[in-house]
TrEMBL record:
This is Sodium:proton antiporter. Its main location: membrane. It comes from the Bacteria. Keywords: Antiport, Cell membrane, Membrane, Transmembrane, Transmembrane helix, Transport. The chain crosses the membrane at residues 12-32, 38-61, 73-97, 103-127, 197-221, 241-257, 264-282, 336-362, 369-388, 455-475. It holds the Pfam family Na_H_antiporter. Coiled coil: none annotated. The keyword Glycoprotein does not apply. Belongs to the NhaC Na(+)/H(+) (TC 2.A.35) antiporter family.
Amino acid sequence: MTKVTKYPSPLVSLLPIFVLIILLFFTIRLFGSDALGGGSQICLLTSTALCAAIGMAGYGIPWGDIERAIVNNIAGVGNAVIILLIIGALSAVWMLSGVVPTLIYYGVQIIHPSIFLVSCCLICAAVSVMTGSSWTTIATIGIALMGIGKAQGFADGWTAGAIISGAYFGDKISPLSDTTILASSVTETPLFKHVRYMMYTTVPSMVLALIVFTIAGFVYVSDANIHFSLFTDALAERFHISLWLLIVPVITGILIARKVSSIVTLFVSTLLAVVFMLLFQADIVREVAGEGVSGSEALFKGTWMILYGGTTLETETEVLSELIATNGMAGMMDTIWLIICAMCFGGAMTACGMLGSITSLFIRFTHRLTGMVASTVGAGLFLNLATADQYISIILTGNMFKDIYKGNGYESRLLSRTTEDAVTVTSVLIPWNTCGMTQATILNVPTLVYLPYCFFNYISPLMSILIASIGYKIVKLKK
C-alpha cells in the first residue's frame, strides 16, 4: 500500500462536488422527472471518476483504497436495498388489495379539507414516534394520505411536505429510531438524555410547521377541484371496500409496537395484504393477469405481476387511475441504482481525503458557541450532500466535533442534538441522498417538488442555531 503524505486542499476537494451539481442541474433540466432513470446515475459516476482521478494522479492515493471505500459504502446500504424492494411490493399490494383505497374512502369523509394538512402532519408524527421509522410511516400511512390529498384537491407538494414533516419529527425524537440511537451512541450521550434535550429545538420547529400547515389548509381548501362523492363512488365501484381490510394496517401496527424488525414487519404486512387481496379483490388480480389464463393460474400470475411489476387500472377519473397505478419491486430499481452510484461517490470522496479536507474548514469557526453550533450544522448539511447517506453523515459529524465540544467545555448532548438537527431531517431534502431518493419514489413526488413544503425539515437546523445564539438550556461544564 502506497503511503499518502498529502491530501487534496479544500478548493480541490470541492471540485467533484461542483461538477456533480452542474451535471445534475443540466440533467434535471433536460430530463425532468426522468432523470432518475439513468441521467442522475451517470452524473454521480462521472463525479466519482473525477474524484478518483484527482486522488490517484495528483496525490498518489492507491486505487485499492478507493475501491475498498466504495465497496464498504455499498455494503452499508444492503439493508436499505432489501427494505426498498419489500416496500415496492408492499405499496403495490396494499393498493390493489383495497387497503389503501379503504383508508382513502373513509379518510376523505372523516378529515375535513381545512384541517387536512395539519392532520396529515400530526398523524405521521404520531405513527413515526411509535415506529421510530420515517420510511415505514411514509410507505404505509403516507401513501394513503397522498390519496386523500389528491381527492381533496391538494397539490402533491403540499401533501408530501406535510407527510415528510410529520414522519421526520417522529424519526428524530423516537427512542426506537436508528438515527436517534446512532447520534446518541456516536457522541457518547445517554439515549433518553439525548431525546429530552432535542425537545428544546424540535418542539418549536414542529409548532411553527403546524401553524403553517393550519393556515395553508384554510387558505388552500377553496382550490379543491374534485367532488368527494364522485371520488369515493369511483373507488367503491372499482374496489371491494370493507372495514375488514383494515386488519392489515392494524396487525402491521401491532408488529411495529412490539419492535419487530423492519424487514420482518414489512414482509409480514406484504404477505398478509396478498391474502386479503385474493379474498377481496380476486377480479382485479385476474384482470392484471390478462387473457389466456384462468382459475388459480390467473390468480398466481396476477399476484406475481403485482408484486414485481407495474399495473394500471382504468377508472372513471384520470386522477384516480393515476393514484391506484402501482410499480411493485421494479419501481424501486431506479432508486436502488441511484443509491449504489451515490455510495460510489461518497466512498471515493472519503478515500481521497476530500471529505476530511472540506470539513476542516468548518472547524475554524468553533471558538464561540453560536459559531460552533453553526459549523456543526454546516458540516452535517455538507456531508449529507457529499456522502448521500444520513448514517455516514451522523457518524462523521459526531466524530469530527466530539473533541471540539469537549475541549470548549460543552455537554455531549449539545453535539448529539445539533447533529440530528442538521443531518437526520435534511437528508430527505437532497435529491441524490438515500432518503430523498426513497421518499420521492414511494410518494411518487420529485424531491424538488416537495422540498419547499417540508417546513419542519428546514426550520430544525435554523432553530438549532437560534437556540444556541440565545444560549437557552446550554450549560458549560466545569473544568
